[in-house]
Amino acid sequence: MKGLYVITDHALLSAQTLLDGVDAAIMGGASVVQYRDKVSTPEVCEKNAMALKALCHERGALFIINDDVLLAQRVNADGVHLGSEDASLRDACERLGAAKIVGVSCHASVSRARQAEQEGAGYVAFGRFFPSKTKPEAPLARLEVLKKARRKLKIPIVAIGGINAGNGAPLIKAGADMLAVVDGVFGQQDIIEAAGRLTTLFRA
């Protein structure tokens, strides 16, 4: 896991624009797509997840479900991402199996990340690093967290929170393998260009 990790948002991508928006992000270089939908019915979420999984696999991107282990299992997603208040990591790993990816939000706690790695997490996410429109109340993390995590962990590290092409480079330099982005891609007029600018940071 390396590069641009995009996360969908129902406020930025409607039912009509969801697939086209994600397709544009992948064309711009996104290598991981997380489907995050807190408002749709279970039936709509499953329908969207199936369509997104097919698109991601056709385009060569990984497909992750936010929060919902059962949905990830039903649609055979590549994995699931768990927040600090979501399902048990151990339960998710057991239910989905060793071949699937289980990511965990760790905010600014390297000790939580180390525990998650020991319990089978496929990656950990730290943040928010900058003011975030998606989660403005999320606790702040600093670059030192990424530097420390890089020394302590063997699994991939994801940075999240208010990231765009103008501020992402220091996060990569500090140790982030991936930049997770919502508004910085899907909130932009040209999604392909926005994703491409972020992807370029990893080549630099």
Task: Please give a structural write-up.
- By secondary structure, this protein is an alpha/beta fold.
- It has helices at about 20-25, 40-60, 70-75, 90-95, 110-120, 145-150, 170-175, 185, 190-204, and strands at about 5, 30-35, 60-65, 80, 100-105, 125, 155-160, 180.
- The protein has a single domain, classed as Aldolase class I (TIM Barrel), CATH 3.20.20.
- It is built from 9 helices and 8 strands.
- Strands 1-2-3-4-5-6-7-8 form an 8-stranded parallel β-barrel, surrounded by 7 helices.
- Strand 5, helix 5 and strand 6 form a beta-alpha-beta unit.
- Helix 1 packs parallel to helix 2 (about 40-60), helix 1 packs parallel to helix 9 and helix 2 crosses helix 3.
- It is globular, with a radius of gyration of 16 Å.
- The mean pLDDT is about 95.
Order of helices and strands: EHEHEHEHEHEHEHEHH
**The named CATH superfamily:** Aldolase class I
Structural class: alpha/beta
CATH topology name: TIM Barrel
Counted beta strands: 8
Number of helices: 9
CATH architecture descriptor name: Alpha-Beta Barrel
Tell me the fraction of residues in β-strands, as a range: 15-25%
Ends distance: 17 Å
**Basic shape:** globular
Q: Determine the fraction of residues in helical runs and give it as a percent range.
A: 40-55%
The strand order across the widest sheet is 1-2-3-4-5-6-7-8
Name of the CATH class = Alpha Beta
The Cα radius of gyration reads 16 Å
Main sheet specs: 8 strands, parallel, barrel
Q: State mean pLDDT (0 to 100 scale).
A: 95
Count of domain modules: 1
Low-confidence spans: none
